[in-house]
Amino acid sequence: MIGDDYDPGATGTPTSCTEPLPCLFCGAPEFVEIHEIWGHEFMLQTCCEGLHQQIVQDMDDDPVWARALLRRLKIEPLTGQRLRRVVDDGCVGMILDWQLQLGSASAGQVRRFIARHHAHCGIPTAWRFHRAVFNGRTLMGVAIVGNPVARALSGRGIVEVNRLCIRRDTPAALRWNAASMLYGWCAQEAERRGFQKIITYTRIDEPGTTLVASGWLKEAKIRGRGWHSTRRPRSNANGWIDKIRWSRALHPRSHSEPPPRRSETSCEASMLTGWTTVGSVFGFTPA
Ligand SMILES: [Zn+2]
Asked: Cα separation of 169 and 267, whole Å?
C-alpha cells in the first residue's frame, strides 16, 4: 500500500510536496522520483527499498496507475515523448511503451532495416517513397511504396506497398498499431500524389487483419509459382506460397505526380517478381 500522496491524480507531485507523509516502510518523508530512463526501461529512486518494492508491485498490478504515476513524475517532459502504456514485457519487467510516431528514415536505413528484420523477402533496389514508424526513439517498422511489381498493373495510376516490415525482436506491445499506421500513411501519401489505387500482397496464411481494419479489400488470389518445378532452387521461400492481393481505392484531388508509364520499371528488380509475374494468376492477366 502506497500513501495517498502517490495518487497520480492528486495535485502536486510527490517530489514537490512541501510536507510529504512519513513513509510506511522507513518512517522518513516519503520520496519517489525517476532516477534513470534508457530506451524503454526506467529506474525509480525511493526513500527506501520497502517503498520501492511496493511501487513496483502496484505498477505491475495496475498498468493504468503505473502510467499515471510516471506522468506525475514528469516522464513526458523529461524525455520529450508521450507515454502510451506501461507494460510488463515478461522479461525485464515493466517497460515504457511510447506513443508511436511516423517519421523519416534514409533509404540506406530502410534497406538495412529490411535486411535485418525481413530478409526472407529480399531488399528492393528502388521505390517511390517510404516512411518509418518509431516507438520513442526505437525504429519499429518501415513501409516502402513503388510501382506494381506485376507489370500488368503498371501504368494505371496504381502503386504498391512493396514491403511493410515490422521488427519482431522487441516486446510485442511496442509494435501494437505500427502496421496499420504505416498502411494508413501509404494510402494517404499515394492519394496525395495523385494515384487512384494502392495495392499490396499478403501470404495466404496471413489473416490480413490489419488491412481489413484499415479499409483494404481482398482483390485477387495469386497462386505461388512452381510447386511442380524441380529445376529452380527454393531461394525465396515466399515465392512458393499463394498470395492475396489487397487494394484500396483512392480519391486524389489533384495529380501532382503523374501515374507511372509502363516504361518506368524501376521496381522490376524487386525480389517479389518471382511470384507475381511468373505464377498463375487469378483476377488479372499475368504480364
Ligand atoms: Zn521509505
From this structure: 28
Q: Judge contact between 14 and 32, C-beta under 8 A.
A: yes
What is the enclosing helix (H) or strand (E) of 188? helix 178-192
Distance (Å) from CA 52 to ligand 1 centroid: 8
State residue 182's pLDDT score: 97
DSSP result, 106-142: -HHHHHHHHHHH-GGG---S--SEEEEEEETTEEEEE
Of 117 and 230, the one with more pLDDT: 117
CA of 33 from ligand 1 middle (Å) equals 12
**Tens digits of per-residue pLDDT, 152-183?**
898 889 999 999 999 999 999 999 999 999 99
Domains and CATH numbers, the chain: 4-98 (no CATH), 100-277 (3.40.630.30)
Cell of 22: 512519513
Task: Please give the distance, rounded to the nearest whole angstrom, from the Cα atom of residue 23 to the centre of ligand 1.
Answer: 4
Tell how far the Cα of 40 is from the centroid of ligand 1, in angstroms.
Answer: 26
Between residues 254 and 57, the one the model is more confident about: 57
At 85-95, the pLDDT tens digits run 999 887 778 99
- 22 alpha carbon – ligand 1 mean position (Å): 8
In whole angstroms, give the CA distance from residue 59 to residue 88: 9
Q: How far is the CA of 178 from the centre of ligand 1 (A)?
A: 40
Ligand 1 centroid – CA 3 distance (Å): 10
